[in-house]
Write a structure and sequence with these properties.
20 helices; Four Helix Bundle (Hemerythrin (Met), subunit A); mainly alpha; flat; two-stranded antiparallel sheet; 3% strand; calcium; transmembrane helix; 66% helix; EF_Hand_1_Ca_BS; Helix Hairpins
Length: 507
Amino acid sequence: MTRMKTPQEVETVCPASIPGCVLHVEMDVGEKVLGDEAEKEARLRHHALEAAPLVPLVPLVPLVPLVPLVPPVQVTNIFGFQDRDTIKQEIRSRILQQKPPYRVYDYYHETGFWRGVATSAIFENATLVVIAINALWIAIDTDWNTADDLMEAHPVFQVAEHAFCIYFSCEWIVRFMSFKRKFNSLKDPWFVFDSFLVATMVVETWGIPILKAATGLSGNIGPTAVLRLLRLLRLSRLVRMLRSLPELMILVKGMVTAMKSVVYVFGLLAIVTYIYGIALTQLSAGFEFHDLYFTSVGVSMYSLLIYATFLDNLADFCDAIRAESLPCLFIVFTFVGLAAMTMMNMLIGVLCEVVSSVAAAENEERMTVTVVEKMREVLAAVDADNNGSISYKEFLLICHQPAALQALKEVGIDPVGMIDFAETLFIQDGVAIEMTFEKFMGMLLDLRESNCARVKDIMNLYNQIQPEMKAAQKDMQEIKDRTATMEEACIDMLIEIRKLAREEVYK
């Protein structure tokens, strides 16, 4: 084979994105352009690329499990009471799942004179005022009324007792006549309680004097102390005032909730006092202050509780000990630091934490109940098919109700921002859906601006974007398959071109 005198440059250019494709310039006619080695290498690179898996855009294994492997742990405080966020979540779930709250007005007549009076705010407030006056009058009667029999008392006390008895009897009659079915009055705990108080008051004020006049008996019928104790039961009506003063209810519930914490702190205080009482009883033997403060373990604990814990007359207590025994004084100082300064302040901190948690829970419950009741009323007005479910169209009608918008603002939900989530809530896979009232309210309460992101929220977000990610991954796989097909076709075409170029060179 002869060589050509004028070498012809053969240039093959291919895109850099195609693996196995090289830029090769042949300067010598007698040399091969591309041999079998280059073709084999291109084939191997192509098959290696085709066999390589596509790197997923999202992890195939979720970062958080959709179903917890272990039961959720309830968040509690060291003393046993729950965290405020846990309490809020439980209250919200309980309110959404339960039936509408109990109201005694539901058992009343729909209309009528008795219902109008019983449900009147003026009547309710007047009753609370009379209850407060009656509570004050009981103190006056206890101090100034020395008569054992009402008929022998001063006319002022007789008039007052008859006036209170008349008012509470009339109030009981109004409430009893308001019930549509009289038997339902037994379902109201407050009415049953008031019935017992009114009965005892009527017996004491009118029943006993009438019985005495009819039988001609004189003196007291039954023990006087028992009758006076029955009179003290009227003070229990003050509990009704707590319902009208939510702040007082918060304090009462806080005290009840903190009872366990108080018992723990007092138990620790009793142990420390017992240990120090034994130590001071033994170390103070032979001193004069021993006979005054530490004669026995019980007396020592009493002295430490009064003087070193409650800090009553602490200066005289410490001066008496300092005059005779500095070691005992040092022990007393350590007890003051532990009991008065540490444990008592720790008790105050625990009480503040409990009351704060209870207050947050009460506010959450009150706001949730308010918005749920208002939204129920609005839904009843816009529910065209009366199925109890909410559709996208009904949701838009709710958004045009001023009462609903005001209720949402009160609980911290932005009505404007809520519209942005409408399609996410009511449209799934391009199909409009309906949801129950409980599910709808749960989603609305999750949109409050004060809420913090939780693991549940991250899981919900993951569940929402997972279908989109799978669709995107499927599209990328299709693009990869098409690209691989095009690469294979290009390589086959390039091989044919090289063969033709090789034949031209050797001609």
